[in-house]
User: Which sequence fits this backbone?
């Protein structure tokens, strides 16, 4: 029996107990219903792809014993927690898989409330957030600390989500250990390395090294094919963010924010490439609109980054506290309620662009480019840029559109709420094969 074909069972006991491993493998110990952990070393020795394609069935497989695997999921920021939660749930609900949730703590403040909303607790928390954190400093910490956690967990695969420094560095750490990486929300592109920065670069790196590129849309899959990513690594799943939104709407929290009325505009801004003059111009545009429409109001959940708060200086004191209500960023559950209640949204957020079509709310996208063209093409969202006059004019126009009421007019191009199940199915089909 070669190392290549070894499997072992009883996941809790298996580590560090070579004779037990041998006995289970040979069928002498443990009932045959035991879940059997794929040896990560097998995957590492050959690379997941070649192992899966070329190996003969293991004894366990040929006996039809259900196999078992751990999957590590690494998160560091609010959107990663939101979009990873459905995958954690799917893995947890499947008896053949166990999710191990690892947080880098890249954005501690925003992450904590989000995890509570989603009823998730990380199994490992690196708690890496520091003041004046840089992408290089954070990457270095992650690359230094995560391998030890991976070593303890011994996952059959590592999943990362999106385009953060956490996702990029965690994917690289797993790649260096020859553990197969699944990139959730693969293939998003603006084609501009400076916008969003550093996210566009992070996406490119991840999609090159991932074993599975889980693309949310057909367009994202096209982007990957255009970069000559192997077709067998690309799977269109839908966006797990839609799974999460639908889950949250089905498990509503009590809203802690006193929203002014149904007719408020929800504002979120946080993109690094907009810090400074562009953010101030957007805020000026909002204030110009509010002066024209004195009955309109804005709820602005303020991102904790000081560069975002600095843009408040551009807001006229005549509107702040009157027509503009600044609130601390609500946890995800409360934020979903705000999305459901507002009249329209002005935002530079990626996740918000994806969520609003499910709620029949229009997003005015305060950016020059977007990697989420589907909701622009479908007519749900509008790309309005970051110029003061353009923002004000777009708000004025959207404000006079009829308030949307009734069934959602068109399907959300970002997903149907089944993305996590599709990801689970790929992992099981390719790693368990029983
Ligand atoms: N969100 C939230 N509270 C807020 C603002 C946003 O829970 O105050 C959620 C929102 O519903 C979406 C995600 O956070 O799912 C988007 O995060 P963010 O805009 O920070 O990142 P991006 O999506 O642009 O990467």
Assistant:
């Amino acid at each position: 029996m070669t190392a290549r074909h070894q499997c072992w069972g009883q996941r809790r006991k298996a580590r560090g107990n070579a004779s037990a491993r041998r006995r289970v493998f040979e069928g002498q110990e443990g009932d045959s219903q035991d879940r059997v952990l794929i040896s990560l070393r097998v995957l590492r020795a050959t690379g997941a792809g070649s192992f899966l394609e070329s190996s003969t069935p293991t004894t366990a497989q040929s006996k039809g014993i259900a196999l078992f695997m751990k999957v590590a999921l690494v998160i560091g920021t609010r959107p990663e927690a939101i979009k990873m939660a459905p995958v954690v749930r799917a893995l947890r609900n499947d008896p053949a898989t166990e999710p191990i949730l690892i947080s880098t703590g890249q954005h501690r403040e925003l992450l904590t409330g989000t995890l509570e909303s989603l009823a998730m607790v990380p199994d490992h928390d690196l708690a890496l957030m520091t003041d004046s954190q840089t992408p290089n400093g954070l990457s270095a910490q992650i690359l230094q600390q995560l391998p030890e956690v991976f070593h303890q967990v011994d996952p059959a695969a590592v999943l990362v989500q999106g385009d953060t420094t956490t996702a990029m560095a965690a994917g690289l750490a797993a790649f260096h250990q020859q553990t197969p990486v699944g990139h959730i929300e693969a293939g998003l592109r603006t084609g501009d390395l400076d916008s969003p920065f550093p996210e566009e670069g992070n996406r490119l790196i991840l999609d090159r090294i991932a074993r599975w590129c889980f693309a949310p849309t057909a367009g994202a899959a096209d982007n990957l094919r255009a970069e000559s990513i192997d077709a067998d690594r690309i799977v269109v799943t839908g966006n797990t963010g839609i799974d999460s939104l639908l889950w949250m709407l089905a498990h509503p929290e009590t809203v802690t924010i006193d929203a002014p009325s149904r007719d408020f505009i929800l504002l979120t801004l946080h993109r690094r490439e907009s810090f400074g003059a562009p953010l101030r111009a957007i805020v000026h545009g909002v204030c110009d609109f509010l002066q024209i429409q004195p009955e309109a109001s804005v709820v602005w959940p303020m991102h904790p980054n000081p560069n975002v708060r600095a843009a408040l200086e551009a807001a006229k004191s005549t509107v702040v506290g009157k027509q503009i209500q600044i609130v601390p960023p609500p946890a995800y559950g409360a934020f979903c309620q705000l999305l459901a209640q507002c009249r329209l949204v002005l935002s530079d957020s990626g996740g918000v662009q994806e969520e609003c079509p499910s709620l029949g709310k229009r997003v005015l996208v305060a950016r020059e480019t977007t990697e989420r063209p589907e909701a622009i093409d479908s007519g749900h969202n509008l790309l309005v840029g970051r110029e003061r006059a353009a923002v004000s004019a777009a708000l004025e126009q959207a404000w006079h559109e009829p308030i949307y009421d009734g069934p959602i007019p068109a399907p959300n191009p970002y997903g149907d709420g089944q993305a996590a199940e599709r990801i689970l199915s790929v992992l099981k089909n390719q790693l368990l094969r029983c």
